[in-house]
């Protein structure tokens, strides 16, 4: 009896072991990742690719690495603070304001390099994935168009951050390398000329394949692609191209695309007719306190509240100007003036591109090509829209140029570093008024208009060594 | 087959019942050992019943039994003896020595072995070592007691677990944590769920022959924890322990400056900026600095509007209205610790049990932080038939931990706050004039440094919209853990030589973390508060079937084991977050806006075939081999199977004829082993797959992003381990010791190789390079005095470990403060070399290489003031040269006195907290160390502290300026106890009563003060709270 039981037990247990052995390969194959989706799903349908493009749009407003290194808005706001119009008091962005946040080991330097390249790698994966997919040619062209416009956009940020402003004579300067596919090898530095040529090609190709349709205002359509191209041409002094692209971006009908009454509403709503492109946010999809500019410039809602407006700049606005959102306090120092242009909440949307900018690009491009009358007329359309009491300019020559550039600052301050962008592309330099907390002057083509190459890149890239920063 | 009834689940009932027979009478007697000495504690049992007793201190016993019944006497080290009850009422006897039983049995992988036959490196911690410390996490007991193990405590939050590294660090990216096996089964819960009183032994397996049977998880060493089981044929015993005490941080913090210094220095930094950066005249610079001081700082604690004059002095009559002591506000002066245990153990002839309940409540250094745990365990085992033994170990543990942020750079992080926030910022809100602002009920309001519209005392330049003290009370960070384990086995004995054992275990670990941010102040005030909750369920299923064969014929013994094992780990995570709560509502149901949900399921499976074959000749020569084949779901089908093995042997030299009768050398044993093991503890469950990560939605549109680039051929890390050791016992067993050498080479390391970030990926996880760890370990234990009344023993252990990178696929990696290069260690600092302060202008300087015309270093150095030009050099290491411990144990009569020290010599630490305090006011509002007093102030000053400058500079950039030697000795545990005499406690019907005073971490001698010397393996700091020093009074009663 005892032996029967024992034999029975043994057989049973051994049998169960062997059943396990037989199944062990299945047993090991069974677990599958639940957090990731396979490539075949993404590139198997237009919906899949659109999910990829949605993720890319979301990342543009994420929390990449720090409060001042969050997304596209962080690159923009760092540029803003390098200028004269806003004054930094304390806390985040101090080193950008000090114009010395450019050493190889600093966060600004590595972020402004890593973030665009991160996005470019995603976009390359999207472009290459769609190209080899079974989607229809119509879908392919539209989807690739969106991705190429964005790729051009991010390469443009790299071009601006890591080299002097573009001129026809400095095309051979070293510039960030171009990647068009997944690589685990670092490439050597390219040239500024190559980089701008690549950007223009991406954008012009995109424009030819895009329509006005899109999933939402954070996605790219033909208007956005034209807007990016208008900025690129401005940076390249291609006035003719800038005029056409800017006009196409806003559609050419000034009255239809401006809404002065909403200017004072806080720049927190992407549905505004003036916004061509932006980052939408909601309470459950927010970058929270990483939301530059509003978390910093807004003087009322509790956040950082650490940015003030240069009094001299504020004084340029008439009382009847819809854009006059300034409050003069009792302080006698740089903390005197605040602006309520940007209202902070977790659900505040972030502006990336507006029609007014495009109108002013078109006006400037007309001026640069000798059409001063056209420039004044177009600018006045905007000026009178903003301020019913506005008087049409009679300026000519450099006075008109200054007026256009001032109008750009008045319209766009705090949004994407317009003052820095103009100073850089026109080799003008930036002079700060003496009421600043830190009074620093940037000479034309000052090295501080661009960053050094980050040390983490140098350390890991066999084709770039420390010498890349000599003389930078 | 006997017919005794044994119910597994009701052993208590059985054991508490007494069977009575007729004609019962009282038997008394005296028991002595083989040398004729009285033997206390001998178990005397009436065979066939549960009646039993123990001999007292003088070896006497009294028991009731009937004529014809048999009394069984058992004692460790003596042969069990039986006597039949006859007419006499007195039965005294002398027991005989049991040579077999004297041999210690050690728990090893998948079984146990006689200590003598062990060929590998195993260190055992018993009840004594574990009982001598106040352990919130049991693995802390390893520190200072086991040679070759580096333990780094995790700070002042009770219930957080130490980092343990056995014989160096053998991995870079894969985990280097040892595998923890609880009663034969991999443990995946939180180790803080096990209380020290439950543990019978904790064995640390260090070499290949002892760990090889764990194959792919063995590379980092194994810790085998065995819980108490009770003993067969023993009287049931109840033990009650109560320990209560107080804790404070074990080391004091870096000092910080007060208001007056803060104002003067801040003024000076601003003045210096005006002169040296902005080029103003000295007079203008002073005036401007005075004027902008308050707007720079945002706050003015003084009763005058401009408290510092143009010469940098406080104006006459200026007095502070507040001066906040953040340390005092943040930390407890005395944190309580209370621990109570009740355990019952015993056993009859065919079953044994252990039941324990433990309650612990310990407060942490930071206010509101605490850890409360209730844990219980029931282990039962029964020999149901002479061929069948079954057992079940069960435990349930539940804990609650209030865990406010105590490290890192979150705004609430308490130590960071103490080291950042100047005393000029108030704890409670102030108005522009400096008066307290009260709420409508007249209560003070925590100042969050973000009162828009208030020009002074409204907006802080640092850590805005937060108050870390307020956050302790206004926010909640609660971790709740519930751990249930059921571990059962059945063992079938087919013959004396062949047996089969099946073991099935299930563990369910529920981790619930709940955080609440206040509705009215701080980070989530603008959205009406936030609740975030995560609930992760980790289940582990383990099924082991083993066949054991054991046979001795003549001088030969063989032992063989064949095992099949299946392992399954499943992590099922769920999280939710919402905002908009009414006051007092802290659960998600009250949320107005759901912010997010998350959830995933991850699985890890391993199937394994393994075996061990051991042979010994004359009990003198031992040889043993192990083999394991593992398949893991973490790797692709092509790369998932790995083979692991070890072989080892030992020779008991002292049993050879020429030493057999030596009194000088009692034991001499040489052993050696070699094996190859694996490590598969990748950070991700599917590290070889690249895919699109969900959860990146753009409003209502589903969004995905491409995950990091991966290596589809990723596979195991492998380690080749060689070990040689000598065990000895000298001078009539008065001096024991072990000397060991090991060499561990890890190849195909799983490492995230940095990629140029321009590729869009910052790294790829692949098998890269190899590391070698080698070292010596020595432990000695001496019994210096050994008399009936006085015993004194001293133990010491020390180990030396060398860590060396032996292969890299690229020339070098720079990672943080380290550079990895062949021939260097993972932990050699590679940072800028501080060259002091230029006495001409007060600027900091660093060294840089002088380059020749081709750009190569000439070997000469020069100084530079441009930090970005400074060359980085190798500078010391965060790994100590020697670590170890010292114990001493003295017993005099009823008194006992025990001390445990641990020490570490030769490591360096980079103190970034101190670096922050020496920033020199480049960022207004940050506090500073009083050491800034020796700053440069005028040309000609010779000092090591640069000028104060309110402008970005690199003076406190990473360099040797903040790299310090980090030698320390810590009195880790001290116990003074008194055991009441047996005759006194006997009158109260008690077996044992002991009172003791215990101090943990009472003294720390360290070469660099201001931080806890145990920070991280990498020798970097993270604003982490300090380990606690605890003084307690304890009472232990057994009956």
Brief summary of the model shown:
The complex is a heterodimer of chains A (472) and B (1039). Chain A has 472 residues and is mainly alpha-helical.
Span between termini of chain A: 91 Å
Walk across the major sheet of chain A and give the strand order: 2-6
CATH topology of the domain at 102-227 in chain B: Ferric Hydroxamate Uptake Protein, Chain A, domain 1
- Count of helical stretches of chain A: 17
* Oligomeric organization of the protein chains: heterodimer
Keywords (chain A): Cell outer membrane, Membrane, Signal
Domain RagB/SusD (chain A): 347-463
Pfam families (chain A): SusD-like_3, SusD_RagB
InterPro entries (chain A): SusD-like_N, SusD_RagB_dom, TPR-like_helical_dom_sf
Question: Overview of this structure, please?
Answer:
Chain A is mainly α. Chain A is built from 17 helices and eleven strands. In chain A, the strands form five sheets. Chain A has a two-stranded antiparallel sheet with strand order 2-6. In chain A, a hairpin with an 8-residue loop joins strand 7 and strand 8. Chain B is mainly β and 1039 residues long. Chain B has eleven helices and 51 strands. In chain B, the strands form twelve sheets. Chain B has a 22-stranded antiparallel β-barrel. In chain B, strands 10-15-16-13-14 form a five-stranded mixed beta sheet. In chain B, strands 3-2-5-6 form a four-stranded antiparallel beta sheet. In chain B, a hairpin with an 8-residue loop joins strand 34 and strand 35. Chain B: It comes from Cellulophaga fucicola. Chain B: Keywords: Cell outer membrane, Membrane, Signal, Transmembrane, Transmembrane beta strand, Transport. Chain B: Pfam families: CarbopepD_reg_2, Plug. Chain B: It is a multi-pass membrane protein.
């Amino acid at each position: 009896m005892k032996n029967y039981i024992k034999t029975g037990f043994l057989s049973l247990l051994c049998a169960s072991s062997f059943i396990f052995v037989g199944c062990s390969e299945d047993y090991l194959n069974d677990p599958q990742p639940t957090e990731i989706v396979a490539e075949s799903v993404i590139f198997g349908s237009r919906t899949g690719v659109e999910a990829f493009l949605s993720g890319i749009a979301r990342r543009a407003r994420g929390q990449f690495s720090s409060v001042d290194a969050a997304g596209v808005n962080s690159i923009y706001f760092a540029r803003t603070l390098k200028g004269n119009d806003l004054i930094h008091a304390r806390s985040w962005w101090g080193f950008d304001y000090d114009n010395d946040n450019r050493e190889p080991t600093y966060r600004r330097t590595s972020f402004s390099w890593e973030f665009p390249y991160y996005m470019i790698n995603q976009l390359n994966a999207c472009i290459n994935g769609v190209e080899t997919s079974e989607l229809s040619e119509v879908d392919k062209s539209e989807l690739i168009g969106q991705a190429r416009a964005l790729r051009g956009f991010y390469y443009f940020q790299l071009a601006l951050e890591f080299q002097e402003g573009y001129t026809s004579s400095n095309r051979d300067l070293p510039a960030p390398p171009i990647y068009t596919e997944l690589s685990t090898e670092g490439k050597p530095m390219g040239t500024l000329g190559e980089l701008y040529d690549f950007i223009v090609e991406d954008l012009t190709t995109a424009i030819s394949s895009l329509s006005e349709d899109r999933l939402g205002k954070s996605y790219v359509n033909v208007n956005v692609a034209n807007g990016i191209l208008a900025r690129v041409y401005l940076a390249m002094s291609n006035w003719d191209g800038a005029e056409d692209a800017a006009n196409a971006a806003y559609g050419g009908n000034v009255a239809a695309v401006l809404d002065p009454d909403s200017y004072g509403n806080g720049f927190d709503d992407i549905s505004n007719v003036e916004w061509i492109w932006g980052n939408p946010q909601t309470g459950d999809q927010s970058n929270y306190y990483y939301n530059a500019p509003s978390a910093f410039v807004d003087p009322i809602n509790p956040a950082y509240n650490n940015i003030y407006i240069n009094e001299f700049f504020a004084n340029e606005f008439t009382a009847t100007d819809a854009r006059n959102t300034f409050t003069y306090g009792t302080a006698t120092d740089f903390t005197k003036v605040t602006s309520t242009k940007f209202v902070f909440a977790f659900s505040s949307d972030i502006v990336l591109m507006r029609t007014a900018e495009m109108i002013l690009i078109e006006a400037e491009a007309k001026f640069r090509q000798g059409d001063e009358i056209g420039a004044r007329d177009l600018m006045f359309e905007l000026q009178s829209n903003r301020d019913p009491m506005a008087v049409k300019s009679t300026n000519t020559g450099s006075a008109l140029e200054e007026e256009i550039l001032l109008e750009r600052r008045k319209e766009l301050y705090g949004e994407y570093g317009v003052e820095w962008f103009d100073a850089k592309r026109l080799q003008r330099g930036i002079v700060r008024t003496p009421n600043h907390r830190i009074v620093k002057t940037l000479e034309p083509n000052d090295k501080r208009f661009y960053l050094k190459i980050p040390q983490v890149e140098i350390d890991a890239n066999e084709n770039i060594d420390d010498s890349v920063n000599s003389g930078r | 087959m006997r017919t005794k009834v044994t119910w597994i689940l009701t052993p208590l009932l059985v054991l508490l019942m007494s069977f009575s027979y007729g004609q019962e009478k009282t038997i008394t007697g005296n028991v002595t050992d083989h040398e004729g000495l009285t033997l206390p504690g001998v178990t005397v049992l009436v065979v066939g019943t549960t009646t039993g007793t123990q001999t007292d201190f003088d070896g006497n016993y009294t028991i009731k039994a009937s004529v014809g019944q048999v009394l069984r006497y058992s004692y460790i080290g003596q042969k069990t003896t039986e006597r039949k009850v006859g007419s006499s009422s007195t039965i005294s006897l002398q027991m005989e020595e049991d040579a077999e039983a004297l041999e210690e049995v050690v728990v090893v992988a998948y079984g146990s072995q006689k200590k003598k036959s062990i060929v590998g490196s195993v260190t055992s911690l018993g009840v004594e070592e574990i009982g001598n410390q106040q352990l919130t996490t049991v693995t802390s007991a390893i520190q200072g007691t086991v040679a070759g193990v580096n333990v780094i405590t995790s700070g002042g939050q009770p219930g957080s677990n130490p980092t343990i590294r056995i014989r160096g660090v053998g991995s870079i990216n894969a985990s280097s944590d040892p595998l923890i096996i609880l009663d034969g089964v991999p443990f995946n819960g939180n180790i803080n769920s096990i209380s020290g009183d439950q543990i019978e032994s904790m064995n640390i397996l260090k070499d290949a022959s002892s760990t090889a049977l764990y194959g792919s998880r063995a590379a980092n060493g194994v810790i085998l924890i065995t819980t108490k089981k009770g003993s067969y044929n023993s009287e049931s015993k109840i033990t009650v322990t109560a320990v209560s005490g107080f804790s404070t941080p074990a080391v004091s913090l870096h000092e910080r400056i007060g208001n007056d210094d803060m104002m003067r220095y801040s003024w000076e930094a601003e003045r210096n900026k005006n002169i040296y950066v902005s080029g103003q005249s000295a007079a203008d610079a002073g005036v401007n600095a005075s004027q902008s001081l308050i707007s720079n700082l945002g706050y003015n604690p003084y009763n005058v509007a401009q408290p510092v004059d143009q010469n940098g002095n406080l104006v006459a009559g200026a007095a502070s209205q507040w001066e906040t002591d953040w340390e005092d506000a943040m930390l407890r002066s005395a944190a309580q610790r209370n621990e109570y245990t009740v355990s019952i153990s015993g056993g009859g002839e065919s079953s044994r049990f252990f039941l324990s309940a433990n309650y612990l409540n310990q407060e942490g250094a930071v206010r509101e932080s605490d850890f409360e745990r209730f844990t219980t365990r029931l282990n039962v085992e029964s020999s149901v038939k002479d061929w069948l033994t079954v057992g079940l170990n069960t435990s349930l543990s539940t804990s609650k931990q209030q865990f406010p942020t105590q490290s890192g750079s979150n705004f609430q992080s308490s130590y960071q706050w103490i080291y950042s926030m100047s005393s000029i910022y108030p704890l409670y809100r102030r108005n522009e004039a400096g008066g307290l602002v009260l709420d409508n009920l007249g209560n003070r309001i925590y100042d969050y440094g973000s009162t828009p519209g208030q020009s002074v005392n409204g907006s802080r330049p640092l850590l805005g919209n937060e108050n870390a003290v307020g956050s302790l009370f206004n926010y909640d960070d609660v971790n709740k853990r519930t751990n249930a384990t059921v571990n059962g086995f059945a063992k079938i004995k087919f013959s004396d030589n062949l047996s089969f054992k099946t073991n099935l275990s299930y563990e369910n670990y529920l981790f619930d973390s709940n955080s609440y941010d206040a509705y009215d102040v701080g980070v989530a005030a603008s959205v009406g508060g936030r609740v975030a909750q995560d609930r992760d369920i980790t289940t582990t299923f383990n099924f082991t079937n083993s066949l054991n064969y054991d046979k001795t014929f003549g001088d030969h013994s063989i032992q063989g084991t064949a095992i099949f094992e299946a392992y399954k780990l499943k992590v099922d995570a769920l999280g939710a977050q919402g905002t908009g709560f009414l006051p007092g509502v802290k659960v998600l149901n009250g949320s107005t806006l759901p912010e997010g949900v998350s959830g995933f399921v991850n699985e890890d499976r391993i199937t394994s075939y393994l075996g061990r074959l051991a042979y010994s000749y004359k009990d003198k020569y031992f040889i043993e081999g192990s083999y394991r084949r593992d398949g893991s779901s973490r790797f692709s089908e092509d790369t998932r199977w790995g083979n692991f093995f070890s072989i080892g042997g030992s020779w008991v030299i002292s049993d050879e004829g020429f030493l057999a009768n030596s009194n000088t050398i009692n034991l001499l044993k040489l052993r050696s082993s070699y094996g190859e093991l694996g490590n598969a503890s990748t950070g991700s469950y599917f590290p070889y797959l690249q895919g699109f990560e969900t959860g990146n939605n753009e409003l209502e549109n589903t969004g995905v992003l491409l995950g990091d680039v991966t290596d589809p051929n990723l596979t195991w890390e492998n380690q080749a381990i060689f070990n040689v050791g000598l065990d000895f016992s000298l001078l009539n067993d008065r001096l024991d010791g072990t000397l060991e050498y090991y060499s561990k080479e890890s190849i195909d390391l799983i490492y995230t190789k940095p990629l140029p970030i321009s590729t869009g990926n910052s790294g790829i996880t692949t098998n890269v390079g190899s590391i070698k760890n080698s070292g010596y370990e020595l432990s000695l234990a001496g019994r210096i005095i050994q008399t009936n009344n006085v015993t004194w023993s001293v133990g010491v252990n020390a180990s030396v470990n060398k860590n060396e990178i032996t292969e890299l696929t690229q020339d070098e990696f720079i990672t943080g403060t380290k550079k990895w290069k062949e021939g260097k260690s993972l932990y050699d600092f590679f940072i800028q070399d501080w060259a002091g302060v230029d006495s001409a202008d007060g600027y900091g300087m660093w060294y840089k290489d002088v380059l020749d015309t081709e750009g190569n270093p000439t070997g000469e150095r020069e100084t530079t003031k441009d930090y970005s030009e400074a060359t980085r050099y190798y500078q010391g290491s965060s790994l100590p040269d020697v670590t170890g411990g010292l114990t001493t144990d003295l017993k005099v009569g009823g008194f006992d006195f025990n001390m445990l020290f641990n020490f570490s010599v030769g490591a360096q630490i980079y103190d970034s907290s101190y670096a922050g305090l020496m920033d020199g006011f480049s960022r207004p509002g940050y506090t500073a160390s009083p050491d800034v007093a020796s700053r440069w102030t005028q040309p000609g000053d010779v000092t090591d502290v640069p000028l104060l400058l309110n402008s970005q500079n690199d003076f406190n950039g990473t360099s040797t300026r903040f790299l310090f030697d980090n030698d320390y000795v810590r009195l880790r545990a001290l116990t003074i106890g008194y055991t009441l005499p047996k005759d006194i406690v006997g009158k109260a019907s008690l077996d044992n009563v002991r009172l003791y005073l215990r101090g943990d971490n009472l003294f720390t001698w360290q070469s660099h003060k201001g931080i806890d010397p145990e920070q991280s393996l990498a020798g970097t700091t993270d604003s982490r709270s300090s380990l606690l020093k605890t003084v307690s009074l304890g009472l232990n009663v057994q009956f």
